[in-house]
Design a protein that fits this description.
This protein is mostly helical and 310 residues long. It has helices at 2-39, 42-59, 65-89, 91-97, 102-105, 110-129, 133-151, 158-178, 185-208, 210-215, 221-225, 227-244, 247-250, 256-278, 282-309. The protein has a single domain (40-309), classed as Orthogonal Bundle (Tetracycline Repressor, domain 2). The mean pLDDT is 86.
């Protein structure tokens, strides 16, 4: 009888330890998932791809793998550090706008997020040293801009939007620097296109964050002139970017294959831009912004690839 009782208690103990281990593993999984969510990987991925686009345009072909890899890492981790810091500085705003975010919900501590941001920053900085001194300088400058935006410049509204859009646009130019062909004409045009699109996307995103931004006293365009008017300005910037996308054809830099691919991309951007204006809820609006971002990036990339291959 004692043996049976002892065995039973042993099984209960093992079961309890298993449950504890299982619970700990689940918690670790949720925290890892939370860190990935802090990174917003699709946006750093887009920044990395923009660097690759700059490389391909500058070379009029595909770069060697080391240059492609280093360029992607440069863009990915520079953008990633800015994404994490955005949540750190915007935790109070997110508790109003998006309470499910890792920091706002309490899943990830501020200390952990800051440590993660430092690691991500250093990875990108180390990659910069393998490119050249100018890449290091640009990384430091635009990291400071990203930090300053999240800390204070975001409260300046449109002025802050300009800084963010410049940081996104520089990724294209960085691509040409990686392959040692800076300031290529096509690179400059695409950098301007990315700047305009990013500026429109930033203003649209602000239109979705009005309630929380008021809490932080951010003087965003939507707060100053209204959500709908801000979305019209956003669409106007998308439209100018679309017009500019035909300039490489007019200048004879790219041919018919690029024209077809970029025209399809432009149609998608304008369609989603109209749907964004029509959106009635924040959730729907954010969905269209994400589709715009990924659709425009994919379209630009495929347009460049088609121009090189065909």
């Amino acid at each position: 009888m004692k043996l049976e009782t002892s065995s039973h208690l042993g099984l209960v103990g093992i079961s309890g330890r298993s449950a504890t281990i299982s619970s700990g593993a689940m918690l670790n999984y949720k925290k890892i998932k939370g860190l990935i969510e802090l990174l917003r990987p699709e946006l750093p991925f887009a920044a990395g791809v923009c660097v690759i686009i700059g490389e391909i345009i500058a070379l009029d072909g595909f770069p060697p793998f080391p240059e492609l890899f280093l360029g992607f890492i440069w863009g990915f981790f520079l953008s990633g550090s800015a994404m994490i810091l955005n949540d750190v500085f915007d935790v109070e705003v997110d508790r109003v706008n998006v309470p499910t975010r890792p920091l706002a919900s309490g899943l990830i501590s501020t200390r952990t997020a800051v440590g993660f941001a430092i690691i991500v920053t250093l990875i990108g900085l180390v990659a910069s040293f393998f490119i050249d001194k100018l890449a290091v300088l640009l990384y430091v400058i635009f990291w400071i801009i990203g930090f300053s935006y999240n800390w204070k410049l975001k409260e300046r509204g449109f002025f802050g939007n300009l800084f963010v859009s410049s940081s996104v646009a520089i990724t294209i130019i960085l691509g040409s620097i990686v392959v040692d062909k800076p300031w290529n004409r096509a690179v400059v045009i695409f950098s301007m296109m990315v700047f305009l699109f990013s500026l429109g996307e930033e203003i649209a995103a602000d239109a979705m964050d009005v309630k929380g931004d008021k809490k932080r006293n951010i003087r965003s365009i939507p707060i100053l002139i209204g959500r709908k008017n801000a979305l019209y300005i956003s669409f106007s910037l998308f439209f100018i970017e679309v017009v500019l996308s035909f300039l490489p054809v007019i200048l004879g830099l790219f041919g018919i294959s690029y024209l077809i691919a970029i025209s399809l991309t432009d149609i998608l951007v304008l369609f989603l831009g109209v749907e964004l204006i029509r959106s009635q809820t924040i959730k729907t609006g954010l969905s269209y912004i994400r589709k715009l971002y990924l659709g425009a990036l994919s379209g630009m990339f495929l347009s460049i690839i088609s121009a090189i291959i065909i």
